[in-house]
Amino acid sequence: MDLPTAWNLDDKSNYLSVDSSGLRVSYKYKGLGECEENVDSIRANQPIPLHCKLFYFEVEIIDEGENKYIGIGFCKKVVNLNGMPGWDYDCWGYYGDNGNFYCCSGKGNPYGPLFSTGDTIGCCLNFKNNTVFYTKNGINLGVAFRNLEGTLYPYVVFGSQGGSIEVNFGSRKFKFAVMIWEMNY
């Protein structure tokens, strides 16, 4: 079973730079994410296998950038990487600048706290009960989305000059105790 292990260097927008580990991404565009032309995103190197009943990843916010405009989520392969997670069909995302969760439309729903430099945001896709929840600094924020289906990729978007993140797909210990949660769920 091939799981996501890094960002896909060939499946990203133009203004993103990825370090040699494939885990740290920085946004170099001069815009402020005020429209879709000012955002760039990247997908993981592998989709989450459908037979993987539970998949969790964490994103550490190294630098929130000028306006905290970073979205963390998941998408299908058909999603345009110059769009915003959750604003188009087949993509979903939780945003640091407003705490909203976007589900296949440009209308966000209040979900969780804002996040910024130093925070770690986790995203758990539970294919056993078809739900998604996020964590902030190891604390479960509750279900963000129900009726999860399809082949999905971890996905992050930037619209904040100077923004930088590092992903953990499980190569080191998570801040959230996923296995304990799974056993108690």
UniProtKB/TrEMBL annotation:
UniProt cross-references to InterPro entries, sorted A to Z: B30.2/SPRY (IPR001870), B30.2/SPRY_sf (IPR043136), ConA-like_dom_sf (IPR013320), SPRY_dom (IPR003877), Ubq-SigPath_Reg (IPR050618)
GO molecular function, one term: carbohydrate binding
Name the UniProt record assigns to this protein: Concanavalin A-like lectin/glucanase domain-containing protein
UniProt keyword annotations, A-Z: Lectin
SUPFAM superfamilies, sorted: Concanavalin A-like lectins/glucanases (SSF49899)
Pfam family, one: SPRY
Domain B30.2/SPRY: 1-174
Presence of the UniProt keyword Magnesium in the record: no
Lineage: superkingdom: Eukaryota
